[in-house]
Amino acid sequence: MCDGCCCGTDRKHPGVDHAAIRERIDAAAVSAGGRSRVVGCVGACERSNVVIVRPAGISTDRVWVGGVLDDEIVDQLCDWIAADAVTPAPAAVAARVFSNGSTPPSVSVALSGLRS
Length: 116
Ligand code: FES
Known about the structure:
This protein has 116 residues and is an alpha+beta fold. It has three helices and five strands.
């Protein structure tokens, strides 16, 4: 999960409990046998908060999700991650998936499913 100059900040997203979102995403990743990382800006600030998901067993595909700010997206994202993120993304998640167009820096893999 990005936590850079925009994502995860009260300055850009006042009133959002960023710590709670990070905790929920981390718990979902761990329940799927994976892990989460908090990283610096991944270059998509216009989409903040950004979460990058690497589905379990798929080492090269990464799903970039923007606008992870409200309960609906966090609930669905966490459920999807907890289910290994290998099924089609739920509606709220799918609506916020975007293409970054470039490979992020090596540290930017925010969630890595390790169950494979
Ligand atoms: S701070 Fe998250 S994309 Fe820039």
